[in-house]
Design brief:
By secondary structure, the protein is mostly beta strands. It folds into 3 domains: 75 residues; 84 residues, Thrombin, subunit H, CATH 2.40.10; 114 residues, no CATH class. 7% of the residues lie in helices and 37% in strands. It has 3 helices and 17 strands. It has a 6-stranded antiparallel barrel. Strands 1-2-3-6 form a 4-stranded antiparallel sheet, with no helix packed on it. Strand 1 and strand 2 form a beta hairpin. The longest helix has 13 residues.
Length: 319
């Protein structure tokens, strides 16, 4: 079974070989997008080891059939691509681990290198099962002495300078990414500090106006919808335009917009902050009819889309 990634409906794209003929593979594909690009990347596992390859689509996807060229090269997928270093006992790195495999088999291994999410281990070949994917580690020394972790086997190869031994690379699947947050406790304030000033009267920004909605069009007549947060006289005010991030809408930028306005208000400077939904994305701005189904909003969006100069022309007098 091959797998690639997730489609716009967040379904896993999978495929399996139906037949091989004339230098091509005909695959039964599930959840593949019909407009998939010509280049196809596929992953699979064999006896617990991950592989991947790149190939090219030779025909449109029809009737759940995906036709691709037989790949020239299949790569062994080793995912420990972060910086590795020799273990340092003085900094708490482990030197020895007990390795538990399926069916109760266990052996001891020596740590040859460490990385943020994995380990290189040296073990005797005869103690390594013929097929293994998941294993358990128990640290015998170092800062994690006595603790256990789960890991996945990513690669193994004979130890050149040690006959009868193999070097295996594993990725820890339950790495501790952060420690507990230290909470600072302060004594109760029983007296009013001298530096606390009398509060100023509330400005009308927070209490008065309804939210301003901005609608304008780009050069193609596609509508763009935005929200305006402001303080002071808009004539000659500083204008701040904030496009939303990937997967966000203009509403997610409320805390940032309010922070900017509050900062300018404190400095007694007028400001207008515009946050808007980009076109062909989630939100209220223009999207193609075929992309208005939830989960497909970004189908026609491209990262290379020009910025605001092409999206539309904003002037303070527009709002």
């Amino acid at each position: 079974m091959f797998h690639r990634g997730l489609n716009t409906q967040i379904d896993l794209e999978t495929a399996q070989i139906d037949r091989i003929a004339n230098g091509e593979m005909i695959l039964e594909a599930r959840n593949f997008e019909i407009n998939s690009r010509d280049q196809i990347f596929l992953n699979f596992s064999l006896e617990g080891r991950p592989y991947f390859f790149a190939t090219a689509r030779t025909a449109p996807i029809e009737g759940g059939r995906l036709t691709v060229r037989i790949p020239a090269t299949v790569f062994y997928s080793e995912r420990r691509d972060r910086l590795r270093r020799a273990p340092d006992g003085r900094s708490g790195d482990p030197q020895r681990v007990k390795i538990g495999f399926e069916r109760g088999v266990a052996t001891e291994g020596f740590v040859t290198d460490v990385s943020p999410d994995g380990l290189g281990l040296l073990v005797e070949r005869e103690s390594l099962p013929n097929s293994v994917a998941v294993l358990a580690l128990k640290f015998l020394d170092g800062a994690e002495a006595g603790s256990q972790a789960q890991a996945q086997l990513r690669n193994w190869q004979p130890a050149v300078k040690r006959p009868g031994w193999v070097r295996i690379g594993v990725v820890r699947t339950n790495v501790k990414t952060t420690g507990p947050i230290k909470i600072e406790y302060l004594p109760t304030m029983t007296e009013r500090p001298s530096e606390v000033r009398e509060s100023e009267p509330a400005e009308t920004y927070f209490d008065s106006t309804e939210l301003q909605i901005l609608r304008f069009s780009n050069s193609k007549g596609e509508e763009i919808v935005g929200l305006v947060d402001s303080w002071g006289d808009p004539r000659g005010a500083t204008a701040v335009v904030i496009p939303n991030g990937w997967g966000q809408t203009k509403e997610a930028l409320l805390p940032l917009a309010r922070t900017i306005v509050a900062t300018f208000r404190e400095a007694r400077e007028p400001v207008c902050v515009v946050r808007f939904d980009g076109i062909r994305k989630r939100g209220e701005s223009h999207n193609d009819p075929s992309c208005r189904i939830p989960g497909r909003e970004y189908l026609h969006y491209v990262f290379s889309r020009p910025g605001m100069r092409q999206e539309g022309s904003l002037r303070l007098r527009d709002f």
